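Field: sequence (string)
Field: structure_tokens (string)

Example rows 1 and 2, in order.
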Amino acid sequence: MHTPDEALPADFGKYRLEKRIAAGGMAEVFLAHRLDAPHEPLVIKRILPHISQDKSFVQMFTDEARMAANLDHPNVVRILDLGLVEGTYFMAMEYVHGEDIRRIYNRAYKLQRSLPLSHSVRIIADAALGLAYAHKLQDPLTDEPMGLVHRDVSPQNIIVTYAGDAKVVDFGIAKAAHKVQQTRAGQLKGKYSYMSPEQAVGDPLDHRTDIFALGVILYETTTGTRLFKRHNELATLQAVMKCEVPPPRQALPNYPPQLEAILVRALAKRPERRWQNGAALSAALYDFLDDAELRVEREQVGAFMRDLFADDDPAPSPSAPAPSRASEGRGSGLEITAAARGRPRAPPPTAGMASRDHDPASPEPAGFAA
């Protein structure tokens, strides 16, 4: 039995758990390494003991995680191992040195910093490539499509590395996690504000639910306003089902029309009216960056990340250049500023990733929240 005050470091099968870095209702996450490779960090996601005793969960978890273990793409966090140790199921994953979009958003808000539109669009375009690869993954034995769907694309599940790469995390466990998050009455639990309308009403899902969720993140990170988030879960779920999307220019008057058209299509209520795959969405976003002369390289995104989190003293990637404030915002066009705050009905002069649709009367703190 594992307890929250478990002494670390501790051996766990062929791994050594060095530090607990997160914990939730389904699993604990540890920074770790193989016993025979102490200088090669990885991440262990260890399913909680009482969850591991649920046979239907275990079957769902192992089936989907095995499918996801076939993923090998620069924009998807790789699953390295899946197994059972001391009666507890676990997943070993690639160690990624970076921060998720939610933390980037909150950090910029706290520091009153800005993020260029070009950086935000590139991050989403690259995440879309990772989703596209996963969605079309074929079974290596039968060449049949696996039908892999993430189901939980959210700011917490997209990591931007200090080298400037965007990576989608937690492919292969969302379906099993959803089972854990259901109440006894069968009610849906989860990140309502990033669900698609079909997911909110419980309809069958395909890969286009992930396209919609990515569209929500793109909307929020480029306008600085929450799209469907309301004062409680029921109101949020109802907003998702109605799928009434205010034009981005309502929040940001100088929002680029070409980007708005891309975004509106990603957020279509009916799946058949959306971008039909992540590759098409990514290509459209890169076309926008090229047409607007806003394209940035990954090194510029990485430099911004290292500068934004400089106080945390992140260890830069050996292949990455040193942080440079001069690269921040270069060729960015429209900037996303932390100083701008306001409700969508009364748009501020400028808005963006580090601002939000924040109601001062709300108990929820400023910044991204699930």
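Row 2 begins here:
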Amino acid sequence: MSAAEGGHTCGVNRRNAVTTHSRRKPSIRRHTARAVVATATLALLAACGSSGTETPVSGSAISGSETTPVTLRYEILDEIAHDDDSFTQGLTFSADGRLFESSGGYGTSSVREVDPATGKVLRSRALDPSWFAEGLAVVETTDGEVLQLITYREGVTVTLDPDDLSERRRTTYPGEGWGLCQLDAGTMAMSDGTSTLTMRDVATFAPIRTVEVTRQGRPVPRLNELECVDGQVWANVWQTDEIVVINPTDGRVVAVLNAGGLVDANRTSSAAVLNGVARIPGTTDEFLITGKLWPVTYRVRITPG
């Protein structure tokens, strides 16, 4: 979420227009993959196959339980350099594998395209200094893919061209904006820092309905950055080590991934919280995970634990 999330705004260098970055090329640090057991409650899971190998996380294989959390685990495949000035608010892939990120901060907010293999910022657009950038989603519309950005308390959502980050249009909405993702052809899911998700129309951004997110019958507040995966909503929970997986129909948390090992490795300040998950196109079980002000983005495989 905002600076209120950790009392810190990022120090991203501002540009007055879209810029191409000539930062030093970050390196990818490969190492022996290790499995970390996570606490979970998902409905995206399947049992182990007869061969003894684990079935990848897949929306078609879901069945959740209100009382018995499903255990997910992550396996680190790669560590990719990440701009540690980025106050990450949104992380999202286009269908063709381009990676986009939004970074928040009054006077420092930006949207950038990032090389998913190296972490290098390929281009960046500085935003209105009166805005605090929040969630970012690649949205498929009747006119093709666009980027949809929401703002913290400014009540503005901006549609951007993914090819050059130019603004196409803007719309207003009431309340706060935290996370955003496209759930299906006509619907986006949006969080506002509470336990409520608002489903919004892709074409107009008008609210369609709301759903309260619950975990074993209790509300789950502080839902932050979102990723829609196979008809479900994956949500970072602000100031925790968890990513929860939500059934958007009834709001039940059907799985929980505990990423505490990644958080502990990057806890440089109270503001350096987990906040960024994006599934890698062409895979069913591989994701990028990062956080605010983290120097690393992790490529991980997520499987039932």
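free_text_note (row 2): Helices lie at 260-265.
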